[in-house]
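Give me structure tokens for this 299-residue protein.
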Amino acid sequence: MYTIKEASARTGVGVSLIRAWERRYGVLEPARTPAGYRLYDDASIRTLLAMRSLVASGWTPSEAARAIGAGETQLADQPRAEGTSGSSGPGHRAQLIERFIAAAEAASTVETEAALDEMLAAGSYESVIDDLVLPAAAALGDAWAADRLSVAAEHAASEAVARRLAAVYQAAGVPRSTAVVVGLAPGARHELGTLGFAAALRRAGTGVLYLGQDVTVDGWLDATARTRARAAVIGAVTPGEADAAGPVIEALRSAGVSLIAIGGAGATDAVAQRFGVVRLPDRVVDAAGVVASAVRRRR
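Here you go.
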């Protein structure tokens, strides 16, 4: 039997999405511990994999649940290899993103949440974060600039994305020790890519403490001192956020943090060279791989 976090890790389906499929479609009936916690057997794992596969191929969740309940589809015996893409082509991804934007425009909480659920069901986290979830978040800003969304609608939808990414981060498990501290510099608030990176790094087996946005220099120093982390990653979406990372980098270096990296659209090669730090790849999964490998080499 598996806890909901273990079921999520084995299938690549987010914890919140597992709960949504249970609640909305009755596709699963997990057992319960005396304390009320869900427990999933191997049949449940196969059902989750089948749901993920069908939804990724273009079925709606309700259609997939009906087909599985009627025995019209074969359940997989084994989980897909980690990182295998379950999403369909660019056209389907574009449709999902437009559905998400339209839901945000209409201020429909139900449709916004459903669109995010479908995105995360389109494959493993690693296969959808860079090609679907983060592009959808970026499309919110484009829609706001085009006067499709109000500021409030854009913020509400962005917060919905942040909640999903935070759930993935938490579902990856609380590490016994922290190897890397991740966050944003003082004044920096564009956190979705950085949070997405932290979740990917934790799923890669590296102990991560995510600090969040607008972290003071003293906050960075306190976090690395208390955790004894020897690596830090700073997210920077804009040039201004990259400039704000300078004092953080200087302080961390003085405190003996041996690996300091910067990532995000504002983290250009020139910025990395100016600060003397590692510039991470643009894709968060690739960036997580770089940091995870560096941490393993330094152990």
